[in-house]
C-alpha cells in the first residue's frame, strides 16, 4: 500500500488544526493520506494498517465524509474511498474561505499542491486500477476540478452509481460558475433519495431530466472529454469523432427527456455569495483597488473591504495581492 504522508502514521488524540497544512485535524489528515494509497478500504483493513481501533476510525471517516473528502465505494459494499484531492481539497478550501461563520482553517496552497502532485505521480506510475465505478469517479473528479464550462451526466441506473449523486461536484461547479446537466433513466426517480437529490440540484439552479432509457453511463466535461465506464472498463475519450458521438447521444437524450421539478424555489444565495468571493479574489490578483472591485461586482466598497480582510486572514496572507495569488493556486477561480 502506498501511503501519501510525509510523517509516521500514528493515532493522535490532539485535534488542534491551527497549523495543519491541509486544514484537517491530524488524525483526519493521517486517515485521508492513507486512503489515497488504495482504490478503496474496508474500515477493518484501514484500522489494521494505521493501528486505530475501528470505532475511533469510523468517527474520523465520518468527519472526512462530512467534509467531502471520503465517499462510499460503488464497487465494494461497506468500503469507502478517498475523493481525489484535486477536487476535495480545493472544494474544502472554497467552502472554508466563503463561510460566513466558523474559524476552520483554509488548506495551505503549497500543501495542497504537494499532495496533488504526489497523487498524479502515483497515478502516472499505474498503481491504480483502470476499471470499476470507483475508478470512473476518480477520473471524473479530476476532470471536473479543472472544468471551465459544463458537466453533463448520463445516468442509466440508480442502484450502483459512481459520482452521479455526489453533492461535491455540483457544489464545486456552482462556485466555479459551471453548468451541470443530468439525464436519468426514468425509474431512477422512483427512489426517494434520488428524488431528493434531484430536487436539491434544482434548488442549486441545475436541471435534471428523465427519459425512458439511457443507453450508456457517461460524463461529458466541457464538450471536450467524455468518460465512459462500467464494471469492466473505464474509457476516457478525447478524440473529436468519439466525443462528438457521445455529445450527439447526450443532446438527443436531453431534448427528448422530461424535466424533474425541484419542488421549491432556488436557494442559491450562499452560492452567489461564494461566487462573489471568488470574483473578489480574482480581481485582487489582478491588482484592482477596492473601488474598482466594488464597481465590477456591484456591491459596496465596505462589503469588498470585509471580503478582502476575511480572505487575507483565512489565507494567512500579508497582502491583498498575496491573498489573490494563493486563492488562484488553490484553483478557486
From TrEMBL:
One GO-annotated biological process of the protein: regulation of DNA-templated transcription
Segments forming domain HTH luxR-type: 266-331
InterPro entries hit by this protein: Sig_transdc_resp-reg_C-effctor, TrmB-like, Tscrpt_reg_LuxR_C, WH-like_DNA-bd_sf
PROSITE patterns: HTH_LUXR_2
Domain of life from the UniProt record: Bacteria
Pfam families named among the record's database cross-references: GerE (PF00196)
A GO MF term: DNA binding
Stored SMART domains: HTH_LUXR
Classification via Gene3D superfamilies: Winged helix-like DNA-binding domain superfamily/Winged helix DNA-binding domain
Positions in coiled-coil regions: none
Protein name stated in the entry: Regulatory protein, luxR family
Lineage: Bacteria, Bacillati, Actinomycetota, Actinomycetes, Actinopolysporales
Amino acid at each position: 500500500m502506498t501511503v501519501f504522508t510525509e510523517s509516521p502514521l500514528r493515532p493522535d488524540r490532539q485535534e488542534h488544526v491551527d497549523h495543519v497544512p491541509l486544514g484537517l485535524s491530524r488524525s483526519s489528515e493521517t486517515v485521508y493520506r492513507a486512503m489515497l494509497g488504495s482504490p478503496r478500504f474496508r474500515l477493518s483493513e484501514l484500522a489494521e494498517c494505521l493501528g486505530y481501533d475501528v470505532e475511533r476510525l469510523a468517527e474520523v471517516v465520518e468527519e472526512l465524509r462530512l467534509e467531502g473528502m471520503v465517499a462510499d465505494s460503488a464497487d465494494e459494499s461497506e468500503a469507502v474511498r478517498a475523493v481525489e484531492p484535486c477536487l476535495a481539497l480545493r472544494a474544502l478550501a472554497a467552502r472554508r474561505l466563503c463561510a460566513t461563520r466558523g474559524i476552520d482553517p483554509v488548506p495551505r496552497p503549497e500543501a495542497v499542491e504537494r499532495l496533488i502532485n504526489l497523487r498524479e505521480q502515483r497515478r502516472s506510475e499505474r498503481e491504480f486500477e483502470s476499471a470499476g465505478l470507483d475508478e470512473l469517479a476518480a477520473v471524473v473528479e479530476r476532470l471536473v476540478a479543472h472544468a471551465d464550462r459544463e458537466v453533463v451526466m448520463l445516468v442509466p441506473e440508480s442502484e450502483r452509481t459512481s459520482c452521479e449523486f455526489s453533492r461535491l461536484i455540483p457544489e464545486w461547479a456552482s462556485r466555479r460558475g459551471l453548468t451541470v446537466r443530468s439525464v436519468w433513466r426514468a425509474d431512477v426517480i422512483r427512489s426517494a433519495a434520488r428524488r431528493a437529490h434531484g430536487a436539491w440540484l434544482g434548488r442549486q439552479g441545475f436541471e435534471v431530466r428523465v427519459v425512458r432509457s439511457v443507453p450508456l453511463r457517461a460524463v461529458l466535461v466541457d464538450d471536450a472529454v467524455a468518460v465512459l465506464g462500467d464494471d469492466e472498463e473505464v474509457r476516457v475519450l478525447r478524440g473529436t469523432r468519439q466525443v462528438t458521438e457521445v455529445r450527439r447521444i447526450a443532446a438527443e437524450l436531453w431534448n427528448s427527456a422530461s424535466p424533474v421539478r425541484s419542488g421549491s424555489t432556488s436557494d442559491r444565495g450562499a452560492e452567489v455569495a461564494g461566487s462573489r468571493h471568488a470574483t473578489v479574489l480574482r480581481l485582487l490578483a489582478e491588482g484592482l483597488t477596492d473601488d474598482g472591485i466594488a464597481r465590477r461586482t456591484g456591491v459596496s466598497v465596505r462589503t469588498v473591504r470585509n471580503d478582502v480582510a476575511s480572505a487575507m486572514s483565512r489565507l494567512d496572507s500579508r497582502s491583498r495581492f498575496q491573498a489573490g495569488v494563493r486563492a488562484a493556486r488553490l484553483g478557486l477561480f
